[in-house]
Amino acid sequence: xxxxxxxxxxxRYEILGTPSEDVEELWFVCHGHGQLAKYFIRKFxxxxxxxxxxVAPEGLFRxxxxxxxxxxxxxxxxxxxxxxxxxxxITYLSAVYNEVTSQLKKxxxxxxxxxxxxxxxxxxxATMSDLSFDRLVLWAGIFPPDLPPLQSTDRLKDKQCFLxxxxxxxxxxxxxxxxxxxxxxxxxxxxxxxxxxxxHELSSEVLESLAExxxxxxxxxxx
Length: 223
Fold this sequence. Notes:
This is Phospholipase/carboxylesterase/thioesterase domain-containing protein. One of its GO terms (molecular function) is hydrolase activity. Residues 25-212 form the Phospholipase/carboxylesterase/thioesterase domain. InterPro entries: AB_hydrolase_fold, PLipase/COase/thioEstase. By secondary structure, this protein is α/β, with parallel strands linked by helices. The chain has a single domain (13-221), classed as Alpha/Beta hydrolase fold, catalytic domain (Rossmann fold), CATH 3.40.50. It has helices at 37-40, 82-101, 117-128, 149-156, 174-186, 204-212, and strands at residues 13-16, 25-30, 52-57, 61-64, 72-75, 107-115, 135-139, 160-166, 192-196, 220-221. Strands 1, 2, 3, 6, 7, 8, 9 and 10 form an eight-stranded mixed sheet that branches. Strand 8 (160-166), helix 5 and strand 9 form a beta-alpha-beta unit. Helix 2 crosses helix 3. The relative contact order is 0.15.
């Protein structure tokens, strides 16, 4: 007979920048499968500034990328016990979010960003929590098919949504793009597509261009 238990859990996250009242913009970024936050966050050096804070949580499950030794990566979840894992990482990500934003000023622009597997992770955080944010960026990843339709529509209806991918991305195939379009249609969202010449990777140049796009709304205000 399977049983469940809850307990305190210690987890880590990385920041690029210094939390202060000078910060005007927060990027909450989730890495892809097999990555670690301390390396993933370096990809955002190109857009770091005293007024922009980058926060990179790390997947709660770490493993050896090859065999039983050597390089280590992290993942957000697998197919095993997935509902529980999703609930756990939403609780974890919410705790990171609340800790960081408690150190910042009340009016703040917030970008939720997910790369590859992290795109599904950040999509679930955006739609299955009550955390405030202004825009959602899915880079080399798509909306997961298990998003709650009505809740997702309500949570994303006034948000800027971007789908960014390399035209040579070996994982984001035409079939996957069609799946993205189908899910987006179900939740009544039309992401703006941004493409570039490249594979399954982050482009500093495109990242800089994305960071320069004005926020349509400034919705986050803490009482």
